[in-house]
Amino acid sequence: MFKWRHFSLWFLMLSVLPSVSFSDHPVSPEHIVWDRSPIQVTLPLGNERRIDFPVPVKLNVPKTLINASKPIQIREDGSVYWTATKAFDAQRVQAITFTGYSYFLDVSAKKEGASHPIVILDDRLPVDEIKKTADKMKRLSYDYDSADLVRYASQHNYAPTRLIKALPGITRIPVSSRSCTKYLYRFHPLSFEPVAQWQSPTIPTRYITAVRVTSSSSDEVVFDPRLLRGDWIAASAQHAVLDPAGTDGDNTTWYLVSEHPFEETCQRQTPYSNVLSRSSR
């Protein structure tokens, strides 16, 4: 489901300048606040992924997943190290804490799954456990909204360095140019290429991806976020209108905000998924 945040879609357009190159930074953990919804975890084939629970846990893992993985290592501090050896579709895994609380994970494995750590936060913890993590959570808290993230990504693509407003804690992370985009937009012959992705240190974590869009249509195409498919929190376009194919204005950049990395979000697209409204969290 598309959970929409209302904010102005159009920003002051900057003069088009060559893209600025940036070096990659170490990937930060993805912070997910437990809200009783199953947590989506995609494992990369052959590479280990760490899942940090706030307290020690015991995992109930289906036998089929055990057979498709290396031995799953669980530390006494709540960290789980999981390496998938075969691809598999999402299956439910239950994590039970020593206090009796449970978490549900929908775990899948894909060739291009992300490998950054996942940190799960939970406000149900006993008071003493909350105090232990209070300072850490305070350091990790940033008040960036979707408009901030879109503006940041847009400036990195089109503005000179002197005009880029820094957002502390945001890191650029890899994104595959071949990420699934077949069903990204309805009704129009467009091609897509993810060109850059950033991870926000907000709690919960947010991702902003810049996607280069090129039209193959003989007509103008007006950007309409309601035609997007996928679980996007917000979206914006550098230019509202794509000119007919073969003209100077037949390409632009769209900016998509999501709860999970671009690859994981678009992998959950379906040809018939709809865009629905999402209330702000």
Describe the structure.
By secondary structure, this protein is an alpha+beta fold. The chain has helices at residues 63-67, 127-140, 146-158, 262-267, and strands spanning 30-33, 39-44, 48-52, 57-60, 73-74, 79-83, 88-97, 102-110, 118-121, 171-173, 190-200, 206-215, 221-222, 232-237, 241-242, 251-258. Strands 1-9-3-6-5 form a five-stranded mixed beta sheet, with no helix packed on it. Strands 10-11-12-16-14 form a five-stranded antiparallel beta sheet, covered by helices on one side. Strands 2-8-7-4 form a four-stranded mixed beta sheet, with no helix packed on it. β5 and β6 form a beta hairpin. It starts with 29 loop residues before the first strand and ends in a 14-residue tail after the last helix. Residues 1-25 and 271-281 have low confidence and may be disordered.
Number of E-type strands? 16
Shape: globular
> Low-confidence runs (pLDDT<50, min 5 residues)?
1-25, 271-281
What is the helix fraction of residues, given as a range?
10-25%
Radius of gyration from the CA trace? 20 Å
How much of the residues is beta strand, in percent?
A: 25-35%
Give the averaged pLDDT, no decimals.
80
Helix/strand order: EEEEHEEEEEHHEEEEEEEH
Q: Quaternary state, please?
A: single chain
Widest sheet, order of strands: 1-9-3-6-5
The total of helices stands at: 4
Overall SS class = alpha+beta
Distance between the termini: 15 Å
Largest sheet: 5 strands, mixed
